[in-house]
């Protein structure tokens, strides 16, 4: 049975999708981890740098995301392309029934200095968009 427009406009049914500027897979993760240690200033994924340690999601970020009250997905660049096609990476989107809307653009994401700044930005956007 198809969904009506009303169904996919309901806030909690619209996932918030964070698109990493990095590909998935063990070798990619290993390479990214090494780059974070050896040359952090050249690491291309600010979202990864803020929300992950060498191998796992930072506990503060995990708790924050779990408490948002909306579905959240994290997709690597290759996973995102497979599902949605080309897009602006290192961004966050709202999926409205297969139509993506930018939630946080790459310029803003790239200028976010700390995890606290990112959490504040996400919280502000959720309030602005009435997704909570």
Describe the structure.
The chain is built from 7 helices and 4 strands; from the N terminus they run αβαααβαββαα. The protein is an alpha+beta fold and about 130 residues long. It has a single domain, classed as Glutaredoxin (3-Layer(aba) Sandwich). The protein has a 4-stranded mixed beta sheet. β3 and β4 form a beta hairpin. The longest helix is centred in the C-terminal third of the chain and has 15 residues. The chain starts with a helix and ends with a helix.
Number of domains: 1
How much of the polypeptide forms β-strand, as a percent range? Answer: 15-25%
Q: Using only CA atoms, what is the Rg? A: 15 Å
Shape: globular
The total of beta strands comes to 4
Give the averaged pLDDT, no decimals: 75
Write a short abstract of this structure:
This protein is of the alpha+beta class.
């Amino acid at each position: 049975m198809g969904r009506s427009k009303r169904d996919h406009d309901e806030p909690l049914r619209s996932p918030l999708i964070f698109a990493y500027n990095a590909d998935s897979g063990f070798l990619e993760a290993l390479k990214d981890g090494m780059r974070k240690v050896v040359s952090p200033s050249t690491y291309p994924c600010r979202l990864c740098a803020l929300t992950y340690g060498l191998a796992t999601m930072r506990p503060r970020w995990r708790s924050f995301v779990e408490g948002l009250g909306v579905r959240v997905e994290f997709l690597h660049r290759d996973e995102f392309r497979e599902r949605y096609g080309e897009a602006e990476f290192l961004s966050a989107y709202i999926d409205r029934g297969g139509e993506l809307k930018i939630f946080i653009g790459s310029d803003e994401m790239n200028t976010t200095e700390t995890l606290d700044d990112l959490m504040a930005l996400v919280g502000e956007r959720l309030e602005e968009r009435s997704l909570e």
